[in-house]
Design goal:
single chain, 2 domains, elongated, four-stranded parallel beta sheet, binds 6-O-phosphono-beta-D-fructofuranose, 345 residues, Rossmann fold, 38% helix, alpha/beta
């Protein structure tokens, strides 16, 4: 019987378990066995595995997280990491590997593919910032959760006549903030793609001070502002970098809270949504997108189309080269931000 390995890397995203379940069912229909590799690339550096059968994956599509675990381990930051991964792939007698992840995990997959690894990708990130995809699974759930939070924050902000800043995830791209901010009727939306002028933000807060008496601001964790003409850096929780060289963002909400209150005199509070946006059950859309991508990934393995990524692209479930998907981040366009701006103030 042929064997396919499956690993999940990077931050978890609602829909990952639907991918796993779909892969097991599709593989079973083609007489493939599925070996779950635990905790992303870390599992393939050390051969930590979990056999996945239909029994093991029964009904998991409704669950958040991932039953095989994930990590931000980068084999290229480990001594002999590349060789170990290639060797363990052989030792496990795999006929193919499916790697579900974002730019980092799939970037590693693409490098290993160049070295001969039989790998296909599945796009996964709540940030929705992978190229050659219309949408990644996990994003719809994150937007739904953030929208509900914004709806709730409106009522408390209005009751207290406050300005409320909600800090939303999305490291280098403002997709979650933009979509939840529009859906939730935020009065200002701040995203990493467009550094904002603090004076303009304060002008809106002051304009709304007496009528209707409150302001709700949705700010991406990676948003940057201009103060007295100078662009700020991103606000960090810590200077420490992860194995892919990423900083840990966080604190824009608190920073804005202080600056806005000081400049306008309007009482201001901030709320950080953080990992609540990633945890828990996926929406129906993310369950089904994960399912379709999982099925497509197995088809790619069975057809020997390695170096490809299953993708929802131009409305179709199709495949794109891994190299194209990880080449550059997909960010919010100026045009879309202009649409959102129509509702500012
Ligand atoms: O990549 C998804 C994401 O949730 C980003 O939006 C966020 O910046 C980051 O992961 C947080 O990472 P961690 O879970 O390692 O704190």
């Amino acid at each position: 019987m042929k064997k396919v390995g499956l690993l999940h890397g990077g931050g978890d995203a609602p829909g990952l378990n639907a991918v796993t379940r779909a892969i097991v069912h599709k593989a079973d229909s083609l007489d493939f066995e599925v070996i779950g590799i635990k905790d992303g690339w870390a599992g393939l550096l050390g051969s930590k595995t979990l056999p996945l059968t239909k029994d093991v994956v029964k009904d998991i599509h409704k669950m958040g997280g991932t039953i095989i675990g994930t990590s931000r381990t980068n084999p290229y930051k480990k001594e002999g990491g590349e060789e170990k991964v290639l060797k363990n792939f052989e030792a496990l007698e795999l006929d193919g590997l499916i790697a579900a992840g974002g730019e980092d995990t799939l970037g590693v997959a693409n490098k290993l593919y160049q070295k001969g690894l039989k790998v296909v990708g599945v796009p996964k990130t709540i940030d929705n910032d992978l190229s050659c995809t219309d949408q990644t699974f996990g994003f719809d759930t994150a937007v739904t959760i953030a929208t509900e939070a914004i709806d709730r924050l409106h009522t408390t902000a209005e009751s207290h006549h406050r300005c409320m800043v909600v800090e939303v995830m999305g490291r280098h791209a403002g997709w979650i903030t933009l979509e939840s901010g529009m859906a939730g009727g935020a009065h200002i939306i701040l995203i990493p793609e467009v550094p904002f002028d603090l004076d303009e933000v304060c002008e809106i807060v002051l304009k709304r001070k007496d009528d209707p008496g409150y302001t709700l601001i949705a700010a991406s964790e990676g948003a940057r502002f201009k103060i007295e003409g100078k662009e700020s850096d991103e606000i960090l929780q810590t200077q420490q970098l992860d194995e892919f060289g990423h900083v840990r963002l966080g604190g824009i909400g608190k920073a804005l809270e202080k600056l806005i209150e000081k400049k306008t005199g309007v009482e201001t509070r901030s709320a950080v949504l953080g990992h609540l946006q990633r945890g828990g059950s996926p929406t129906a859309f993310d369950r089904n997108l994960g399912t379709k991508l999982g099925v497509k990934a197995v088809e790619l393995v069975a057809e020997g189309q390695f170096g490809q990524m299953a993708s929802l692209y131009n409305g179709q479930i199709t495949s794109v080269p891994l190299s194209a998907a990880v080449g550059q981040l997909k960010t919010v366009s100026e045009e879309l931000y202009e649409t959102a701006k129509l509702f500012f103030g």
